[in-house]
Amino acid sequence: MADITRDVLIVGAGAAGTTAANELRKAGLSVVVLEARDRVGGRLWTDVIDGAMLEIGGQWVSPDQDALIETIDELGLETFSRYREGDSVYVGPDGALHRFTGEMFPVSAETEKVIAEITERLDAMVAEIDPDRPYAHPKAAEWDSVTWDAWLREQSDDDEAVRNLAFATGSAMLTKPTHAFSLLQSLLMAASAGSYSNLVDADFILDKRVVGGLQQVPQLLAERLGDDVLLNQPVRTLEWGEHGVTATTDALTVRARYAILAHAPVLYDRISFVPSLPRRQHQMHQHLSMGFVIKVHAVYDRPFWREQGLSGTAFSPYELVHEAYDNTNHADERGTLVGFVSDQNADDVFELSAEERKERILESLSHYYGPEAKNPVVYYESDWGTEEWTRGAYAASFDMGGLHRYGKDLRASVGPIHFACSDLAGAGYQHVDGAIRMGRLAAAQILDADRS
Ligand code: FAD
Fold this sequence. Notes:
The chain is α/β, with parallel strands linked by helices. It has 16 helices and 21 strands. It has helices at residues 15-26, 66-74, 109-127, 140-143, 148-155, 159-174, 183-191, 196-200, 202-205, 216-225, 279-285, 304-307, 343-349, 354-369, 402-406, 432-451; strands spanning 2-11, 31-34, 46-49, 52-55, 79-81, 87-91, 97-100, 208-210, 229-230, 237-241, 244-248, 252-261, 272-274, 288-290, 293-300, 310-315, 323-326, 335-342, 378-382, 396-398, 417-419. Strands 1, 2, 9, 10, 11, 12, 13 and 21 form an 8-stranded mixed beta sheet that branches. The longest helix has 20 residues, at 432-451. The two termini are 34 Å apart. Its cofactor is FAD. One of its GO terms (molecular function) is putrescine oxidase activity.
């Protein structure tokens, strides 16, 4: 078995791990990145499927994501705006299609008023939340003990208003049923994007994409590390103590003074720690779980919806595909739609055969864009639930009560072991921006420890 010695071992070559490794390298430390998969990027994965370039994982960049924007600029990558000219569409409770412009759904004046009032209330609450310390809010325990659904239902009995407010952090972000996470977890999600209003503004949150794909970020960062990124090396055991760490994969032994676990927290228990991690980590890690969403791509010979004056932006809390967008690639003649099927809807369609699932999903898209949507030339469902080294999408969050109970220890290092991942972030939480921030933070913690 080959033996490698470095200052720092990084487990995972996603955005967090490749960022941390570059930061440490710049500061003069030697690093090695061990990646379980046969590719770099983790939840960033740009691939060509049946001749169409698709973003199977993360893709959008919003204007508040400074760390990601800085990295994109520094790597010399170009961005382009999501197509958004024309009307958006909304399917209401009676199944009727409505066209609209702006951020507010075309609901009745009464429902619109309820949505506006609760949004204002939420913005005020979110403004009090420090995304790096949501557990420190004086009402953290109270807000972490009520589900997002129950809190919204206490505010109003207008079902359409509640469903529309709920899905912004539910189906669309944490991708868990709204009864499965707390009000505090929902406020953190909104605080990480600056406000609840930012989060529901598709033009803000889904603003830009990278020409050629977002996976280039970790790929270019990994290129700078050259031979210090090793693929197909799942870390199986990690011995740790005052001396540092010794990790083993099926083919390698790596000794280092520090380690960074730069992957989703649900995967910590795939590693055998010797000695085992402390009680607090054992307990905390059991209260974090991945959300679940299917990202569906449908490519057509042309963006036919634009001919009808549609932007491609579509929402409905009553539809199987609860949101969909024009996802046409830069300078591509073909038109691409991307839609999302989340949480229990995703569970349900995975009970069907692949053919039936495709039919149901395309049927839902046709409710927004008309019958032409049923005949794409390329169709692809990304299913991160089957990926051994991710196990869901988009990211991990705490179950009820977990955020205020364990939040303060989420990023705390354990001896020489540090943690970095988008799922541990404040600003940029569950996004690539957060992964980069956490990569930088873990590197800074190690550099501090090394100086003292
Ligand atoms: P990961 O990308 O998960 O990287 C962790 C790496 O560690 C993986 O490569 C994994 O293989 C490896 N690993 C795990 N265990 C081991 C082990 N034991 N040994 C060795 N290696 C190991 N974010 C946005 O900003 N915008 C979006 O539009 C967006 N859309 C998304 C759509 C989808 C479908 C998904 C899945 C995610 C999306 N995200 C989006 C979220 C974003 O992709 C992630 O938050 C981010 O990429 C996570 O980066 P990371 O480095 O923290 O973790």
